[in-house]
Design a protein that fits this description.
This protein is α+β, with helices and mostly antiparallel strands and about 210 residues long. It has helices spanning about 5-15, 20-30, 35-65, 80-85, 110-120, 180-190; strands at about 75-80, 95, 105-110, 135-140, 145-150, 195-200, 205-210. The chain starts with a helix and ends with a strand.
């Protein structure tokens, strides 16, 4: 899963939170700031610390994916139940489940499946997409299918598979921008797959398929 272009960005992205952290520590040590500014600097340190930890986790996940070791355990899970329990940001895409499906049993790593669901719900591929397209969860024979249709930056229209192979542009990225390669790796390690295709209206369809337990 590693890609040469990723490493050109990693050093820059990991350094980005350090500058405000160092500035905040300097101001706190100076003793020359008000109580209100003191509280604001502590909030900044916490926020940037969480951001930096998320980037490190993302990089660690990429290295684990390279070795085929993303999954730590496999148990009987119901993807439909996980979808209802998943925690996402307030502005994440709504999720629609097929009303005719009562369960989606599979053998999987529940924490990684929740991560996959969260990535697909929170993903944006264009800054113009104000109302995020819903994520659909349905059954297709012996597979569970998750799919979204999103507006996409023009640079990916000619070759949408690039979305699954490298980091998103900085303007769209959360953390290191490796959410989609990670989502694809999670699907593959569950013996499923993920694809990206351009549809007739110019939107990109992202589809993850996961085998169900029979």
């Amino acid at each position: 899963m590693t890609h040469p272009d990723w490493f050109h960005r990693v050093a820059h992205d990991l350094r980005d939170p350090l500058s405000p952290l160092q500035t905040a520590v300097y101001l706190l040590r100076s003793g020359e700031i008000s109580g209100e500014e003191h509280a604001r600097m502590l909030e900044l340190i916490e926020r940037q610390g969480v951001r930096l930890a998320g980037m490190i986790d993302e990089l660690s996940d990429c290295l684990r994916a390279d070795r085929g070791r993303l999954l730590t355990r496999r148990t009987d899970v119901d993807l439909l139940v996980l979808a209802s329990l998943g925690i996402a940001r307030a502005d994440a895409a709504p999720m629609h489940c097929d009303a005719t499906v009562s369960s989606l049993p599979m053998l999987g790593d529940d924490s990684r499946l929740l991560q996959l669901l969260r990535i697909l719900r929170e993903l944006r591929l264009s800054p113009e997409e104000v109302l995020p397209a819903p994520l659909f969860l349905e059954r297709d024979g012996r597979h569970a299918r998750l799919h979204r249709r999103l507006a996409c930056s023009s640079e990916f229209i000619d070759d949408p598979t690039r979305l699954l192979e490298g980091p998103l542009p900085a303007a769209l990225a959360q953390g290191l921008g490796l959410q989609l390669p990670l989502a694809g790796a999670i699907a593959r390690e569950h013996h499923g797959g993920m694809r990206a295709e351009v549809e007739a209206d110019g939107r990109v369809a992202l589809t993850a398929e996961l085998p169900l337990r029979t």
